[in-house]
Structures are given as structure tokens and as C-alpha cells.
Amino acid sequence: MTENIENLMLEHLKRFQSGQDRIERKLDDLTRRVNNLESGQAHIIQHLETLAAADAQQQLRADEFNQRLERIERRLELS
């Protein structure tokens, strides 16, 4: 009788261990996926920063052209 109880306990422990193993694998998979998402997000942020810097440079160039155009108009007395 005690042997049956021991076997039953072992079976339950094996099932618990199996369930825990599945949970750990799932957690590892989710951890990898979150890391990939964070890495992708970091790349997007870097790309946005690059685009913002390029936009700032273009705006600076446009401002310089506007200043030059205003000087030319003043010299030619167009405005």
C-alpha cells in the first residue's frame, strides 16, 4: 500500500516537474522575444535620431538660403 502511495507521489512530482519545465521553456522564449523587441526599438530610436539630425541640417541650410536670398533682394532693392 505504501509503495502505491509512493508511486502516486512520484507520478505527481514528475507531472509537476514536467509542467515546470514547460513554464521555464516558455519563459525563456518570452524573454528572448522581449529582448528582440527591445533591440528593435533601440534601432528604431537610433534611426529616428539620425533622421532628426538630418532634418535639423536641412533646416539650417534652408535658413542660410533664406538669409542669402534676403540679402540679394535688399541689394537689388526688390523688397
From TrEMBL:
Coiled coil: 13-75
Record's keyword terms, sorted: Coiled coil
Keyword Coiled coil belongs to the record: yes
Protein name: DUF904 domain-containing protein
